[in-house]
Design a protein that fits this description.
With about 300 residues, the protein is of the alpha/beta class. Helices cover about 50% and strands about 15% of the residues.
Length: about 300
């Protein structure tokens, strides 16, 4: 396996492309937006520069990584020679099904098709293809170049051989793969999202403030980041989507999204990516903090 195609040039997609290319895979990165592809390459280069500055990689490795990434706006062109296609589009089941139908029709017959979904059923996605035995989940963690875990999710029909290939492949990326079965939220988000949701409920019910809730979890439970700050980092819209999948999949009210989370998403307060969530990330706020430091 040498040729990898990544569909989606957002935060996860460019991180996945970066990791494969840095580990000597030829990578085709696909997105319908030329601007998104340009931004992805800039992000990858900036992250590589950071690694060079910390002596984690050499300048030669950086240049080789960038040379191994080619960009496309056409799925048909980008998947023609793929051994593996990794879909990293928005967490929307209908969109993913549409992309997988295209991937199935246009990719080589023996190619493995993987999804980076954080909660959507692998079995449901596989059902729209003619190669359900070759459909699998590769749930990378954000930021992809740094985080070691890859949740490898096998659907109902995923073959043992394909699962083993992806487990070994993940190790070649210097990741730690963990095999799990296809249930809503898998393991990572089945455990994480109820915690985040409970933190939002605690805020909603006035038990404590944002910084107080996060401080308790950081200092009391040794979490590197509090649940509300982590939710901002993930994206509140993504958290809401995952909770809806959990709630719909299990039918248990404990997974019902907190009304505060629902309202914040409706208001466009999505966290870091929108400039405001439970915390304020706007440029004016950053400038205010900097001025205070030097005043």
């Amino acid at each position: 396996m040498k040729n990898v195609t990544v569909i989606g040039a957002g935060t996860m997609g460019n991180g996945i492309a970066h990791v494969f290319a840095q580990n000597n895979f030829e990578v085709n990165l696909i997105d319908i937006s030329e601007k998104a592809l340009e931004n992805a390459l800039h992000t990858i280069e900036r992250n590589l520069d950071r690694l060079v500055s910390k002596d984690k990689i050499s300048a030669e490795v950086k240049e080789g990584t960038l040379k191994r990434i080619k960009t496309f706006t056409s799925i048909e062109e980008g998947v023609q020679s793929a051994d593996l296609v990794v879909e990293a589009a928005t967490e929307n089941v209908e969109l993913k099904k549409k992309i997988f139908q295209q991937m199935d029709d246009l990719s080589p017959a023996d190619a493995i098709l993987a999804t980076n979904t954080s909660s959507i059923s692998i079995t449901e996605i596989a059902a729209v293809t003619k190669r359900s035995d070759k459909i699998i989940g590769m749930h990378f963690m954000n930021p992809v170049p740094i985080m070691k875990l890859v949740e490898v999710i096998r659907g109902y029909s995923t073959s043992d051989q394909v699962t083993q290939v992806i487990m070994e492949l993940s190790k070649k990326l210097n990741k730690v793969p963990v095999e799990v079965n296809d249930y809503p939220g898998f393991i990572a988000n089945r455990i994480l999202m109820p915690m985040i949701n409970e933190a939002v409920y605690s805020l909603f019910e006035g038990v404590a403030g944002v910084s107080e809730i996060d401080t308790v979890m950081k200092l009391g439970m040794a979490h590197p980041m509090g649940p509300l700050q982590l939710a901002d980092f993930i994206g509140l819209d993504v958290c809401l989507s995952i909770l809806k999948v959990l709630h719909g999949g299990f039918g248990n009210p404990k997974y019902a999204p907190c009304p505060l989370l629902v309202n914040m998403v409706a208001a466009g307060k999505l966290g870091v990516k929108s400039g405001e969530g439970f915390y304020d990330y706007s440029e004016s706020r950053k400038a205010e903090k900097i001025s205070k430091q030097f005043s």
